[in-house]
User: Which sequence fits this backbone?
């Protein structure tokens, strides 16, 4: 664990030095080029000397968010969640946003930004994961506390997201718990994901009966990320990141097939409506 001060090399000619304070990263410059990196350290580990080729991407993600390297169970759990979250599918609004950008000729970054923007909200998005992790922090595994949870406590600051319509982590259009939610929770339980994931698996039906809505994939993700010891802010950010591969893949595919095969959603217009021009 380290607390590092990194000089901003662009100010060396003035004799002044702006600094970046970080516990995450340390870079050492080459002797003949202050803009080239000789060695980079993440949480004290030599990235190119000790980590590259020896750990996986998922372990690196956790190391960026934590002060110590995760154990193998934690890596396996996040790996399983990452596979489940990798592609929300073309029916998902965030993936569709990326497809819209690609078929319209927007650059790659615009498609990914579109996906991130749509996936940031409360309807199964990253803010829903954040709110569900806050729910876990406040209520724990107490179903009665969940039932009495105040979605908009007094004094809460104004937010950019619409008010929550239901408890976070639930499927707003669901009737029964989906097969994929059951499969994912069972897999995570077998991997030893943690107490929150195990509690959800054991209480799927009581949850559905208590709220009239089943658990969603974002609710599963919130429990897993909380079990991994992440904060709601970290979970929100990681959830956004884990969903991007599918958005990228569908955007690339849609760009190649063109707008003539783009899946526009049909408009439901009433042919008998009599609308006068104003």
Assistant:
């Amino acid at each position: 664990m380290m607390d590092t001060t990194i000089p901003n090399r662009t100010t060396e000619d003035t004799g002044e030095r702006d600094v970046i304070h970080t516990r995450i990263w340390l870079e050492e410059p080459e002797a003949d080029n202050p803009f080239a990196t000789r060695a980079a350290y993440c949480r004290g580990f030599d990235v190119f000397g000790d980590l590259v080729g020896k750990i996986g991407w998922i372990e690196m993600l956790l190391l960026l968010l934590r002060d110590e390297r995760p154990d193998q169970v934690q890596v396996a759990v996040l790996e399983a969640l990452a596979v489940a979250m990798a592609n929300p599918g073309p029916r998902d609004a965030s993936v569709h946003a990326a497809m819209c950008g690609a078929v319209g000729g927007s650059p790659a970054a615009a498609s990914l930004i579109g996906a991130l923007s749509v996936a940031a909200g409360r309807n199964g998005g990253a803010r829903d994961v954040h709110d569900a992790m806050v729910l876990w922090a406040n209520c724990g595994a107490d179903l009665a506390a969940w039932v009495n949870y105040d979605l908009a406590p007094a004094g809460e600051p104004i937010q950019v997201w619409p008010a929550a319509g239901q408890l976070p982590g639930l499927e707003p259009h669901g009737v029964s718990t989906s097969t994929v939610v059951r499969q994912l929770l069972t897999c995570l339980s077998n991997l030893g994901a943690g107490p929150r994931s195990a509690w959800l698996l054991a209480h799927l039906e009581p949850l559905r009966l208590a709220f009239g809505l089943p658990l969603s994939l974002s609710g599963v993700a919130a429990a897993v990320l909380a079990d991994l010891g992440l904060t709601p802010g970290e979970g929100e950010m990681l959830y956004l990141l884990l969903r991007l591969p599918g958005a990228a893949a569908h955007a690339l595919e849609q760009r190649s097939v063109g707008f003539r095969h783009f899946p526009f959603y049909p408009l439901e217009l009433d042919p008998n409506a009599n609308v006068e021009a104003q």
Residues 77-151+165-256 form one domain. Strands lie at 4-7, 19-22, 25-30, 33-42, 45-46. The two ends are 67 Å apart (CA to CA).
